[in-house]
Amino acid sequence: MKTMSDVPEVSIVVSNYNSSDLINGALESVVAYGGDVVWDCMVLDDASTDGGFALVDEKYKKDPRFLFVQNEKNVGFSALNVALDRMRGTYLMTLDTDAKIWPGTLRALLTFMETHPEAGAATGNLHYPSGNIQNYYRRHMTPLVCFYTTVPGRFIDKYFLGLRHYNSYHLTDLDTTRVFEIEMAPVACLMLRREALGSEIMDPRFRMFIDVDLCRRIYDRGYKIFLVPDAKATHIKTASFGKMSIKKFDRQYYDGLKIYLKKFFPASYPLMVVVLWIDQILRAFLKSTVGRAPMR
């Protein structure tokens, strides 16, 4: 029988901001489907205004495997950084409040990480509540990739290049039935090797692009990121971002992208600032005239 004296194989970190009605679902999935993995779980509330931990079932608050941490001030995803020192697990795993793991997921990810030392992180197949698979994986963001997500770039790619860059970035050829190196994975259900993280999980400068930055840093430290098909989770997706106004979302998107480009591609940064400024103008024009803009 597993006890809290055991060193956890995996420390799970659930971070919540204004998705408090979904926390119980995430925690229930961990308890129900943790299987034979020795785990503990930190639940962070980042100064939510929708009830926070008041909506969490008492059975989880009384379970010694759970640690609840309340932030008095909203600091964004960098709240996860406290888990590096406060959690004891050999591996860390981020789990969104709007995600629920399936049976066997923890064991599949743990086994993969233990048998693939080159893996800095591993994720599973993410499914919508309908059961359909989410294509939520990407190649690394670079200045060239960034250009082809803009309105001028999408026009060139669509009408002259057969969506070559869009398909490459979005991994449209991804075979979700086999192990696949994916470069960029969301933090919805992501197991992490401590040695691949350095001094922090999340860069506190980011409000958006946190997973893009995290995955880039993992590769820069000499590790890779993989999709493990036997691991699965249901993910509502945008449960928190979906509550954000379009104006605020766009502002955080461009702010995060600029921080990322300046951090990893400083030589290209001045040019990319101009490119993104043009993209913002064109997108605003298209939305006001035809009611929509190209998908990024």
From TrEMBL:
Residues in Glycosyltransferase 2-like domain copies: 11-159
Statement: the UniProt record of this protein carries the keyword Acetylation: no
Xref: InterPro entries: Glyco_trans_2-like, Nucleotide-diphossugar_trans
Cell division in keyword set: no
Membrane-spanning ranges: 267-286
Domain of life: Bacteria
Keyword terms, alphabetized: Membrane, Transmembrane, Transmembrane helix
Pfam short name (any one): Glycos_transf_2
PANTHER family linked to this entry: RHAMNOSYLTRANSFERASE WBBL (PTHR43179:SF7)
Protein name, as recorded: Glycosyltransferase 2-like domain-containing protein
Species in which this protein is naturally found: Candidatus Kaiserbacteria bacterium RIFCSPHIGHO2_02_FULL_54_22
Lineage, opening ranks: Bacteria, Candidatus Kaiseribacteriota
